[in-house]
Automatic annotation (TrEMBL):
BP terms from Gene Ontology: base-excision repair
Superkingdom per UniProt: Bacteria
The protein's name in its UniProt record: DNA-3-methyladenine glycosylase I
Pfam families per record: Adenine_glyco
GO MF annotation terms: DNA-3-methyladenine glycosylase activity; metal ion binding
Chain sites annotated for binding Zn(2+): 14, 27, 185, 189
Keywords (A to Z) from UniProt: Metal-binding, Zinc
InterPro entries reported in the protein's UniProt record: Adenine_glyco, DNA-3mA_glycosylase, DNA_glycosylase
Length: 195
């Protein structure tokens, strides 16, 4: 894969992030950092469900569009989006204009709050699938990265039972990696020991 973007520092990074500056910044500052804040979890659930069938780079480039369109990821507001706003979103080029994904985000906001009511927070719920602390994988190459794990399989099954949509095991494993439930930085990456 030819990189369109060259990083000026000499730090060793996970190779998947080397496409453009915003991707590198995301990798260096956010990806794999443990998240305990429900609003951030909700943001990533919206973005990752939107990603289904697309690249994360595409979603990352539209992140600010999603932030504006989805009320700064306020799940209480998103849960109340009326059908008229769904129709507006379908005309908004700053997001992925897929009616099923948009409706899934609204549905998932409602399910998200039900989980909060049951567990005290979504964070309490999701961290329970990894025993409350990050799983430290020790990966030496990208070929070792799995698409799913037993934890993501269990989470996907449970979330489906709770009514969540567009959040299968692969998508939820990406969520668990992004929000630090798994440390899947390569051991050679400078962020491996920092998160």
């Amino acid at each position: 894969m030819k990189n369109a973007f060259q990083v000026s520092d000499q730090k060793s990074r996970c190779p998947w992030c080397l496409g453009f500056e915003e991707y590198v910044r995301y990798h260096d500052t956010e990806w794999g950092v443990p998240v305990w804040d429900d609003r951030i979890h909700f943001e990533f659930l919206i973005l990752e469900s939107a990603q289904a069938g697309l690249s994360w780079a595409t979603i990352l480039k539209k992140r600010e569009g999603y932030r504006k369109a989805f009320a700064d990821f306020d799940y209480k507001v998103v849960a109340e989006f009326p059908e008229s706003y769904v129709q507006e979103l379908l005309l908004d080029p700053s997001i992925i204009r897929n009616v099923l994904k948009i409706r899934a985000a609204i549905n998932n906001a409602k399910c998200f709050m039900e989980v909060q009511n049951e567990f005290g927070s979504f964070s309490n719920y999701i961290w329970g699938f990894v025993g409350g602390k990050p799983i430290q994988n020790r990966l030496s190459s990208m070929s070792e990265v799995q698409a799913t794990t037993k934890e993501s399989d269990l989470l996907a099954k449970d979330m489906k039972k709770r009514g969540f949509k567009f959040l299968g095991s692969t998508t939820l494993y990406a969520h668990m990696q992004a929000t630090g439930l798994f440390n899947d930085h390569l051991e050679s990456c400078f962020r491996f020991t920092e998160v």
